[in-house]
């Protein structure tokens, strides 16, 4: 799986929260209709994903972060907190108001995408 795409379970939650399905040209299969070529959760290119389709858009992390900023005024700020072994963490802002200063979950610099995904997941769950 390409690290730039949000995982299947998070993509389903994004659809429930109103993420526009037409913003990406790849989708996760929700029903394979008994076909052996693909499994539920497989990511496939689909030229246009309409909001009414069963399949779920497979957006990139950056597409989701942009949607949160532009449409919800929510900012996931990933930053280097200190010089420990896992210095990367995130904060969540609604406009200029800090909703979460996250100091319980840290990531290594190689886990930048995972840190962003944790921030996105927090926004969708709360």
Describe the structure.
The protein has helices at residues 8-16, 61-72, 112-125, and strands at residues 26-28, 43-45, 56-57, 74-80, 88-94, 97-101. The chain is α+β, with helices and mostly antiparallel strands. The strands form 2 sheets. A 3-stranded antiparallel sheet has the order 2-1-3, with helices on one face. A hairpin with a 2-residue loop joins strand 5 (88-94) and strand 6. The radius of gyration is 16 Å and the shape is globular.
List the helices and strands and how they pair.
Blueprint lengths: L7 H9 L9 E3 L14 E3 L10 E2 L3 H12 L1 E7 L7 E7 L2 E5 L10 H14 L1
Antiparallel strand pairs: 1-2, 1-3, 4-5, 5-6
């Amino acid at each position: 799986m390409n690290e730039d795409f949000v995982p299947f379970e998070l993509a389903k939650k994004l659809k429930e929260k109103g993420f526009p399905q037409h913003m990406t040209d790849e989708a996760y299969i929700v029903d394979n209709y008994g076909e052996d070529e693909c499994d539920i959760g497989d990511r496939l290119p689909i030229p246009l994903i309409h909001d009414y389709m069963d399949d779920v858009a497979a957006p990139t992390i950056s597409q989701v972060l942009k949607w949160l900023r532009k449409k919800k005024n929510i900012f996931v700020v990933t930053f280097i907190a200190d010089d420990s072994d896992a210095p990367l963490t995130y904060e969540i802002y609604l406009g200029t108001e800090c909703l979460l200063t996250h100091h319980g979950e840290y990531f290594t610099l190689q886990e930048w995408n995972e840190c962003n995904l944790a921030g996105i997941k927090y926004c969708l769950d709360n």
